[in-house]
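Retro notes, item 3 of 5
We never archived the inputs for the flavin mononucleotide complex last cycle. Fixing that now. Sequence and ligand:
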Amino acid sequence: MTLSLTEVNALKRPPAVEGVLPVIHERWSPRAFSDREVSSADLHRIFEAARWAPSSNNEQPWRFLVGLRNTQTHSSIAAALAGYNHDWAPKAPVLILGMTRSRTVRRDAPNAYALYDLGAAMAMLVLQAQALGLATHQMGGFAHAAIRQSLGIPELWVFGSVTALGYQAEPAALASEEMIAREVAPRTRKPLSELAFTAWEEPATLGG
Ligand SMILES: Cc1cc2nc3c(=O)[nH]c(=O)nc-3n(C[C@H](O)[C@H](O)[C@H](O)COP(=O)(O)O)c2cc1C
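Structure as it came back at the time:
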């Protein structure tokens, strides 16, 4: 017996903490996607959210290649996915290749913050998607050289992730028992005492 959509989302959701934005606790990375298309109005909202991310010197070095199902871009991104991602992600109606300009426009110098800024934009994007009832799953497992070649992307641009975007499906929609087991596994995080410190190795005492 597998879990329904409502059950799996309840299982994945951390206990509420008053004042934390609900979309932050609701977001997780499913692998089961339904066939339902994402509207162009929602795509607009999602990239608008990414557009307003902060970036070093306001370089806005990110760029997204949006692969919509039944297009060459979607097929090329899907073809470059590592085996374990290829088993589920091509089902998503949108595959987004996130990349960033490795040199600044202002000085044509290496941009040490290019990937950092792309990550910030992606964080905005995935939360906006969540707020719209959409699911996202970022992936680092893809062949960079192959995707660069098939999509004709210049070396100046460095890849961050491929993100599957779409509507979530029930875990049972996945192709194997192993994938279903991973889909319903509890989520884990380090405690706050391992990420917030007031001095070196002195965990912060945070109220709450
Ligand atoms: C940069 C990055 C690369 C990732 N690569 C993969 C991947 O190749 N395949 C995969 O299934 N999940 C991948 N993930 C998803 C993570 O495993 C997932 O975010 C993490 O386990 C936390 O789970 P949550 O997103 O459900 O909170 C990646 C996530 C990020 C941010």
